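User: What would this chain look like folded?
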Amino acid sequence: MPISEAKRAQRGTIALFIAAAVLAAAGVTLLFGSDDAERPAAHAPVPSPTVPSPGADGRGSATPDVTASAPAAQSSKAPVPATPSPLPAPMQEAARAFTLAWSGHDARPGKDASYGDASRRAAAYTAGELTTELRNRASGTAGAQQWLRWKNGQVQVTAEVLHVTLPDGAPAPTRDSGFARVIYRVTEKPATGPSVTSEQHVALKLRRGDDGTWRVVGLPNA
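Assistant: Here's the prediction, encoded as structure tokens.
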């Protein structure tokens, strides 16, 4: 009987040790498992900033991206000549004034009476034989037909000078004379319907008068 009690006591002691070991292992697991659960993931994705959708701010469009819009804004600008014009500024101004008058027409009721009215307006910026020629010039067949088309559509023709430079192969201007090439945009606006735009150019010969004013004295290619 004492031997059986001793065995039972020994078995109880072993069971206590086993239970203690299990509890210790569970405690270690809980300790380290809890620590890992509180740590943020090493490669967790960073949330991207929210981009407002068009109309989200009530103004009909999202705020533009400055970086993305910069090239577009730059490309919308008018082309700038690589080098400045070698012509004197007063000479350029005379070429501009002549071209605007010479290429502008107004076939609306009560405006120009014929295609040649533009030539007569341009004569104010000329000198010598060209003045007489423009004031007395009669419209040719092509000019007369063009005028009829403009008159039927009540078209207003306006010009915008884009650049004034030295013509290819022309000598450099002197103090009193020189050549100019005017590049300009013409817009034909009818009473109804869309406008038509085209780019044209004209070569001019200019001379500076005794009063210092530059005037057109010839149209080399006209």
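Residues 22-80 have pLDDT under 50 and may be disordered. If you want, I can go into more detail on any region.
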